[in-house]
Amino acid sequence: MDLVLAAPLPMTVLWGDELVQIYNDAYANILGPRHPQALGGHPRTTWPEVWNVTESLYAGVRRGESYVFENQRSSVTRHGRVEDAYFTLSYSPVRDEQAAVGGILVIVTETTAQVIDARRRAVHQEFAGLLTQAVTLSDLRAGVASRRSVPDLLFAELHLREDASFPAELEGVLESFQPTPLDWRVDGTLHSAWALPLADAKSSRTMGVLIAGVPPQAGSDAAHQRFLMRLTEQVSAALSRIHDEQAIHESEARLRALARASSEVFYSMGPDWTEMRELSGGGFLADTTGPSRDWLLAYIPPEDQALTIATINEAIRTKSVFELEHRVRRVDGSIGWTWSRAVPILGQGGEIVEWFGAASDVTLRKEAEDQLRALNTTLEARVEERTRRFADLNTELRALATASLRELNEPLRRIRGFLQLLARRLDQQLDDQTKRYLELIQADVQRATGVAESFTGLAHLENRALKWSSMALMPLMVQVRSDLGPILALKAIKWTVGELPVVEGDMLLLRQAFSDLLYSALKLIPDGRDTRVEIKTETSADERWRIVIVVAPFRSGLALAREDGLALARRVIQRHGGTLEVETEAPAARFVIRLSGRQVGHDQHLPREQGGSL
């Protein structure tokens, strides 16, 4: 008996034929208001409501039998109220000194927490199954309302914000976003309930309210509150899923409408492209009537299949955009060209769940490109043939010009010699008019000789290879002035030269070019007239040097453009990769020469005459 009284588990001993009750403090807590009257009393008096069951049970134990009953529900009074509790009951015989059954030991183990926890898990599982099956909002409402009543959840109702009949008394729950206890009328009867707000996890927006009917005493039970919050999370997740699926369906419907109204091709593929789920061909390709696994054979010609598969595999590997221009079998069976682009749709775990793409008909462009390519090939062949012919003709003309000039130079030399001899012998016998005629003939012969020499120089220039070197232009200009000195002896020229760069080129040809250019301009200015020649340097945007030569005064009417020396100078500069621009607007002639070079160092400057002139 001492063992029973000291035990922490609820225990009672029913002793003797009278079944006198002796129990410990833990069992007294189960008895509630039946204690202390039950102490020393009979079970029939203490538990009259179950005596019809326990009477035969006690008789069996007195015969030596033992019994265990798990998770038996019983109403107990504790915490100031009557509540249901669950116990596992063990009935065993207690033997006296003669080994006869003298009494019955009853051990009580409370399992209320385990029973309620299992029951609530079953509710959550039931809810999960109902919510998973819901496709529409109507399905969701029906699933929530149809579940069976259990002590933890007597009833449930779903009210959504967008409902036209949304109860006004729940507006405050939407605004406060807090679970709220209230009395809720069902079939005309008020019941205790909780109004639980349903939140959208993406937008934190309240989507609606779940009404959960609960037993009156459940309000202060923290475990019951956690049970209800879990239900709220389940319903919120299902509601968000249905909203998302509806949005996707609406978007797909709009996209299909756009595809039907568009000439573009729209398609969707499975994650690994083995299945084409849908294709709207826009009159360019054949529309699909259902998912297809032989789309590659149906749409892509054999010669483009390997490239298409390789590009797809790379896009899958990198989870990047698929882009490819390839041949395709059109709706009429002919072969066309398309530019196709598809983007991967990723799931929450980052995996590819679908590909969505669009394609354009580029057949006309590809055909035009092919025609243009063929035309370019033909034109290139023609240009090459004509270039060869022009080169041959140019060689023949150069040879003819050289031979003709050689034939022309000899008669001109003789005529010039005979005229000089005639002028010396008949100088005293000729009148002024005849002398004037003779001078005109000599001048024309001299002009013809100059033209012949210019053509000879041009022919030699085209045949001569450039001898590249670096040269400072300052000493080159000194040599040019020296070359022109005897020819321009009667000219009153003041030379002014600024800093000039070092350039890359053929020294002899550039010296000849600058000489020809200056001579062509200066010879048109009357003898004795004060003339200024200014040579300076400017940098240009293309990193080439601009050598500027200004000759003044110069009248715009002078026929500088017809000068052979200017043509020779331009050709030399062009062979050096440069350009020559000529401006002859009064009061000066301006020559702009562009050549590649670099700034001259201070030690390369030549001494100048006072006033900055050579």
List the helices and strands and how they pair.
Blueprint: H1 2-6, E1 11-15, E2 20-23, H2 25-31, H3 43-46, H4 51-62, E3 67-78, E4 81-95, E5 101-110, H5 112-133, H6 137-146, E6 155-160, H7 171-176, E7 180-186, E8 189-199, E9 206-213, H8 222-261, E10 265-269, E11 276-280, H9 295-299, H10 302-318, E12 322-329, E13 335-346, E14 352-361, H11 363-425, H12 432-463, E15 469-472, H13 473-484, E16 492-497, E17 502-505, H14 507-522, E18 530-539, E19 545-552, H15 564-575, E20 579-583, E21 589-595, E22 597-598
Parallel strand pairs: 16-18
Antiparallel strand pairs: 1-2, 1-5, 3-4, 4-5, 6-9, 7-8, 8-9, 10-11, 10-14, 12-13, 13-14, 15-17, 17-22, 18-19, 19-21, 20-21
Helix pairs in contact: 5-6, 5-8, 11-12, 12-15, 13-14, 14-15
CATH superfamily of the largest domain: Histidine kinase-like ATPase, C-terminal domain
CATH topological fold name of the largest domain: Heat Shock Protein 90
Give helix % range. Answer: 40-55%
Arithmetic mean pLDDT: 83
Distance between the termini: 140 Å
At the first level of CATH, the class of the largest domain is Alpha Beta
- Number of distinct helices: 15
Number of domains: 5
CATH hierarchy: architecture of the largest domain: 2-Layer Sandwich
Percentage beta strand:
25-35%
> Taking Cα atoms only, what radius of gyration do you get, to the nearest Å?
57 Å
Q: Please state how the strands of the largest beta sheet are arranged side by side.
A: 2-1-5-4-3
Q: Outline, from the CA principal axes?
A: rod-shaped
Q: How many β-strand runs?
A: 22
The SS-based structural class is: alpha+beta
